What does this fold into?
Amino acid sequence: MVLSDHYGRRVSFSSPTRPSASGARGSKAPLGGSNRLPSGRERRPALAALAVILILLGAAGSALIALRSGDRTNYVAIAVDSISPGHRMTQKDLATGDLAGKTAALIPSDQWKTRVDGKFATGWLYKGQYVTDQNFTDKQIAAGGVAVGVSLEAGRAPSSGLREGDIVQVVQVPAANQAGGVSSILVKAAEVTAASGAISDDKTKANSTLNVTIVVPAAQSVTTAGAAASKTLVLTKLPSGTKPEVAANEGDG
It folds into this structure.
């Protein structure tokens, strides 16, 4: 709108809606976007999403724990304080316990009747000990004898291997780092009651392990077992007619 003042000069009044000139003093253009904080209403969806994520993570953790607990299986263990070699196993001697992981050699609790009941302990067993088939035999060990398990590598037994019924001499040799040691005979003649594996693989010819169970006099069982554990035990095969120091089973000899 244009008017005249009292001197006759024309005076112009700008419209309040007219945009200010670019770069005019006092104008404040936003720099780099708004710095306004989000309102409470805008934060609610983010909090809800976070809550859902936490719930899902908790459910996944619970499912994982359930799956892992489901992998646990009950196995046969010893319930009494101790069981001596040759003891005939009954249900009252046994307990069960659950384990997870690599337990293939252990006896599942639902198989105790066929794999343990009525069999004879091959060595000392103690309360809480989980057992395998090697802890028992169908034949009763003769009084005064103890069955000992031995793992043999190349050079510790004949390369042709050993089998059930073989008679062996049990020798303890010096350890590899024991200079000037002397070998000694632990058992002059012992019977092999079980054998598995071989000194070398038939296909690859690579060195392997021969596992055998021998029956030795009770007085020599601890020394024999210790030598077997320390890898200082050697078995040499004797003629088949050789009589063992102790009969492998009750009634033999």
In short: The mean pLDDT is 80. Residues 160 and 199 are 8 Å apart (CA to CA). The domain at 73-137 is CATH 3.90.1210.10 (Type Iii Antifreeze Protein Isoform Hplc 12). Helices lie at 40-70, 112-115, 218-229.
